[in-house]
Predict the structure.
Amino acid sequence: MNCYICGKDVEVIKLSDSEEIPCPDCSLYRISGTAIALFKRHNWRFNMELARRWIASQQGSGTVPLIDSSRAAILL
Ligand SMILES: [Zn+2]
């Protein structure tokens, strides 16, 4: 599997309704099943800089940053 942000080959952890991506370059984040479906349907690509900045801004909150479908739409 590949990181949804930078395309690097990473070991994706499948969760019940999301995936966890431990990307060494983008850092750890989760992406929801609905966001993944949108990605595949529309062939979306994240804006790498925007997405990484958002993940960085979420760190320290104690939870893994989750990119849901509405968040994904503004990180393109
Ligand atoms: Zn990445």
The CA atoms of residues 27 and 55 lie 8 Å apart. The pocket of zinc ion is lined by residues 3, 5-6, 8, 23, 25-26 (CB under 6 Å). Strands lie at 13-14, 18-23, 27-32, 66-67.
